[in-house]
């Protein structure tokens, strides 16, 4: 090995010009993975370091639509040194004729247990103080600006009038609720007594934050054993912001997998660079073998060189990725609503280094092995390429398995990882086949009569089908980058199409909640009498948890199905609601008062495995309600209208406090008036604009799509680097070709037209394959993951094909300048035989 290192280093003293594309490809791919991994690690570290402050305590016990009962509260206080109760719900903040949806946080005197609330003026006690009979409140600036409020102004929540005591700049426990759909208003719980917002059956959540010295693991086990069946939800500082962590982890995993697609594109450049490097070393390799060097020594020499260059590209990528994140961290921290701990984290860098080295060597070994397997005489004669030996192929198989296994291990989501890597492999295989087929077809057509009288086209096709054509490299490198963009484009176009198609005709204008039983009849009468209201639906509702199925824990039977993952909205009804479509079983008769019955959504029942006659236990407001499945219904959850997984007969829930909800479909021009009248007549009723809620979701998804498009753009940039490298490596061939054509009388315009035509043909081939990959990938994501209909979007596809043609055309024309300027005599004088 010492001799191999010596020879390798001496040969590399001439420079790394032949490896520029290889180094740049690895640098960009590794940098993308390192940057995404560093950001994810910084967010996770911030959430972990500030877990107790983010949560508002060491642990939190939550209940839905109720406060803790005496037994639960006694247990909480017995295991904590300090306790704070926080109630959360949505309501309307009303100022005169104007109103806006707000997320209300009702707190006690102990809040916040940890951390500090930052206000624009004064202290929290001063902001909450009652003045002129109006209790104080603090509000986020966004909401205050929306309503035109400044500290000292008044506004209403329900029936209670409040005074804005200060603007809230930040709160320590803001990340526990994730990314909300309404700005916050914080008041004291005691001030809500006359508001009518916390009446029995109202939709709210109660949270009990605890500061405790007890070990959290055993404490959680005890709490869930005692009160888990009563709907208790446990959170502690170890996973303070579960929704944020899950979102960051999944998005980070996806972006890293997109980065892997970029490395796969770069791998094509690695293979091309190594092949070009080894072709320039043919005489050196042949000379070493003639002088008696064994094949193992020669292999070691060039393996050391390739490994050194791969390590260099990977190291530069790590430095670029980590350095870029350190530079932009201040900007990111200002935009994120949760803490970020700035620093260099070894795990994402190790992960990126692993991907870079394994991917680089995986693509480099094949052309390296092909060149080294030739004998000295064959090398001097310029014989064709041989297949690598079995040992080389075995090493590549091991590297491939290591890459897949490492990706699964690091991402933590084997389905997403294998699906992404399988898709990349499939696209690469199709692109390879397209490149091979393009060369074969071009060679055949160039020799046929179809191109008689078209010398420019014949020359272009002959060059594409030639023995040293760059068609394969161009189609592979550009095609995969365009494929990623095509998938993103099809998904984005279909998503926007679904919104444009469904929202105006199917989604209601408003979703009203917390309608008290004595308000339901007049509320519905008001809506039905309004000529601008086209449709109104109403249902009595409370929330509960499906805890048992046929005597077994529901999660044990249904697994991680969303129906058993927390509490669900449950409707109660006597007569069968209008429009109900029973698919199996029978609805209970009107006035039924026997054992509890439940009608279950048919699709969800099939997914869980429920049958007619199955016995369920529902925990509602801390009470276990046994019911039997007596019917299945067709329920459509896609239109934002009324839909419940479970409807229970009314007698089974007799005495349980409930409220009604309603969806109202109205003409757009009447929505503002309808909202004002409702807020004035029933202040406790909260109206949620469905369109605004969907717009918030679209905004969040647009941010995700932007990140995905940026990642796909990075893949395309790597593809462009490989494309430029492939075109640049073909300059010597085009130089000789142009010189011969000039001698034969061809004009510069004819030669340039031939160069442009071949570039356009290769770009179109890459674009067409990418369109096909985009259609298949978009269909798979929309149909299998998002369960949305897929419609092929032609404009996105046209943009991909046009982009492929344009990029290859520009690259080809840029590198056409040297062959066009060259003097034939000077070039042909150096050509042998």
Layout of helices and strands:
Blueprint: H1 2-11, H2 20-49, H3 51-55, E1 59-64, H4 70-78, E2 82-95, E3 98-107, E4 118-119, H5 124-128, E5 136-140, H6 141-147, E6 154-157, E7 160-170, E8 184-188, E9 205-211, H7 216-227, E10 233-236, H8 242-280, H9 282-290, H10 295-335, H11 346-372, H12 376-381, H13 390-411, H14 414-446, H15 455-464, H16 471-506, E11 510-515, H17 517-529, E12 533-549, E13 552-553, H18 554-558, E14 568-573, E15 582-585, E16 597-601, H19 602-608, E17 615-620, E18 623-633, E19 646-649, E20 659-666, H20 671-681, E21 686-689, H21 690-729, H22 731-743, H23 748-785, H24 794-814, H25 817-821, H26 824-828
Parallel strand pairs: 3-8, 5-7, 14-19, 16-18
Antiparallel strand pairs: 1-9, 1-10, 2-3, 2-6, 2-9, 4-7, 5-8, 6-7, 11-20, 11-21, 12-13, 12-14, 12-17, 12-20, 15-18, 16-19, 17-18
Helix pairs in contact: 1-10, 2-8, 2-10, 2-11, 2-21, 8-11, 8-14, 8-16, 8-21, 10-11, 11-13, 13-14, 14-15, 14-16, 14-23, 15-23, 16-21, 16-23, 16-24, 21-24, 23-24
Domain ABC3 transporter permease C-terminal: 257-374, 711-816
Membrane topology: Multi-pass membrane protein
Transmembrane segments: 254-278, 299-332, 352-372, 392-410, 416-439, 471-491, 709-735, 755-782, 794-820
Silhouette: elongated
Q: Can you summarize the main beta sheet?
A: 6 strands, mixed, barrel
Query: Cα-atom Rg, whole angstroms?
Result: 34 Å
- The average pLDDT score comes to 79
* C-alpha termini separation: 39 Å
| Strand coverage percent | 15-25%
Uncertain stretches of 5 or more adjacent residues: none
Total of helices: 26
What order do the strands of the largest sheet run in, or round the barrel if closed? 2-3-8-5-7-6
- Percent helix: 55-70%
Name the structural class.
alpha+beta
Total separate domains: 4
Counting DSSP E segments of at least 2 residues, the number of strands comes to 21
Keywords: Cell membrane, Membrane, Transmembrane, Transmembrane helix
Protein name: Drug:proton antiporter
Transmembrane segments: 254-278, 299-332, 352-372, 392-410, 416-439, 471-491, 709-735, 755-782, 794-820
Main location: membrane
């Amino acid at each position: 090995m010492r001799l191999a290192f010596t020879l390798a280093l001496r040969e590399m003293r001439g420079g790394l010009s032949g490896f520029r594309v290889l180094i740049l490809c690895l640098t960009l791919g590794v940098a993308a993975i390192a940057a995404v991994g560093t950001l994810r690690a910084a967010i996770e570290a911030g959430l972990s370091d500030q877990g107790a402050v983010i949560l508002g305590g060491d642990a939190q016990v939550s209940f839905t639509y109720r406060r803790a009962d005496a037994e639960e509260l006694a247990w909480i206080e017995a295991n904590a040194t300090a306790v704070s109760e926080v109630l959360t719900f949505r309501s309307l903040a009303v100022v005169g004729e104007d109103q806006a949806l707000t997320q209300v946080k009702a707190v006690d005197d102990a809040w916040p247990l940890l951390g500090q609330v930052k206000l624009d003026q004064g202290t929290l006690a001063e902001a909450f103080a009652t003045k002129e009979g109006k209790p104080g409140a603090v509000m986020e600036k966004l909401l205050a600006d929306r309503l035109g409020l400044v500290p000292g102004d008044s506004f209403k929540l329900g029936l209670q009038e409040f005074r804005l005591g200060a603007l809230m700049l930040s709160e320590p426990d803001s990340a526990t609720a994730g990314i909300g759909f309404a700005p916050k208003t914080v008041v004291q719980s005691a001030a809500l007594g006359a508001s009518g917002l916390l009446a029995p059956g109202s939709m709210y959540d109660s949270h009990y934050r605890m500061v405790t010295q007890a070990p959290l693991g055993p404490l959680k086990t005890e709490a869930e054993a005692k009160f888990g069946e009563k709907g208790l939800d446990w959170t502690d500082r170890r996973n303070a912001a579960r929704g944020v962590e899950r979102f960051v982890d999944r998005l980070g995993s996806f972006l890293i997998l997109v980065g892997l697609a970029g490395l796969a594109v770069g791998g094509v450049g690695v293979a091309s660079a190594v092949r070009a490097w080894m072709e320039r070393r043919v005489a050196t390799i042949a000379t070493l073998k003639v002088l008696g060097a064994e094949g193992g020594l020669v292999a070691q020499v060039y393996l050391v060189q390739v490994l050194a260059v791969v390590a260099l590209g990977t190291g530069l990528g790590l430095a670029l990725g980590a350095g870029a994140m350190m530079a932009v961290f201040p900007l990111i921290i200002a935009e994120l609503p949760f803490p970020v701990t700035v620093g260099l984290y070894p795990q994402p860098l190790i992960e990126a280094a692993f991907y870079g080295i394994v991917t680089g060597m995986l693509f480099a070994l094949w052309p390296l092995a092909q060149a080294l397997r030739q004998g000295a005489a064959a090398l001097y004669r310029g014989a064709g390429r041989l297949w690598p030996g079995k040992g080389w192929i075995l090493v590549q198989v091991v590297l491939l398995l290591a890459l897949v296994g490492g990706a699964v291990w690091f991402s933590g989501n084997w389905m997403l990882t294998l699906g992404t890597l399988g898709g990349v492999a499939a696209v690469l295989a199709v692109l390879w086949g397209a490149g091979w087929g393009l060369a074969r077809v071009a060679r055949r057509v160039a020799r046929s009569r179809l191109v008689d009288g078209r010398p420019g086209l014949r020359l272009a096709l002959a060059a594409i089908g030639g023995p040293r054509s760059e068609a394969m490299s161009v189609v592979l490198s550009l095609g995969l980058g365009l494929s990623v963009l095509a998938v993103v484009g099809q998904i984005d176009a279909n998503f926007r199409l679904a919104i444009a198609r469904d929202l105006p005709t199917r989604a209601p204008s408003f979703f009203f909640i917390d309608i008290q039983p004595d308000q339901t009849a007049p509320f519905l009468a008001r809506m039905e009498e309004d000529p601008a209201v086209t449709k109104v639906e109403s249902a009595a509702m409370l929330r509960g948890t499906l805890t048992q199925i046929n005597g077994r824990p529901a999660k044990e039977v249904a697994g991680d199905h969303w129906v058993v993952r927390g509490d669900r909205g449950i409707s109660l009804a006597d007569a069968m609601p209008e429009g109900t479509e029973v698919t199996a079983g029978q609805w209970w008769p009107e006035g039924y008062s026997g054992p509890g019955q439940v009608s279950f959504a048919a699709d969800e029942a099939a997914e869980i495995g429920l049958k007619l006659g199955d016995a369920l236990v529902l925990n509602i407001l801390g009470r276990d309600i046994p019911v039997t499945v007596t019917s299945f219904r067709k329920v459509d959850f896609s239109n934002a209208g009324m839909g419940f997984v479970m409807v229970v007969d009314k007698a089974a829930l007799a005495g349980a406090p409930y409220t009604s909800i309603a969806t109202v479909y109205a003409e757009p021009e009447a929505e503002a008036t309808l909202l004002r009248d409702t807020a004035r007549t029933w202040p406790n009723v909260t109206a949620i604009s469905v369109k605004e809620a969907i717009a918030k979701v679209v905004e969040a998804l647009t941010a995700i799509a932007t990140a995905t498009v940026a990642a796909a753009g990075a893949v395309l940039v790597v593809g462009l680097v490989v494309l430029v490298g492939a075109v640049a490596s073909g300059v010597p061939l085009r130089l000789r070709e142009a010189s011969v054509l000039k001698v034969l009388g061809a004009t510069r315009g004819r030669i340039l037209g031939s160069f442009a035509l071949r570039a356009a043909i290769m770009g179109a081939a890459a674009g067409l394959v990418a369109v096909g990959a985009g259609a298949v990938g978009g269909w798979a994501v929309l149909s299998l993951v998002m369960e949305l209909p897929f419609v092929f979007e032609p404009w996105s596809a046209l943009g991909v094909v046009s982009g492929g043609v344009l990029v290859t055309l520009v690259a080809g024309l840029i590198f056409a300048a040297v062959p066009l300027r060259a003097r034939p005599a000077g070039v042909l004088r150096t050509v042998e035989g």
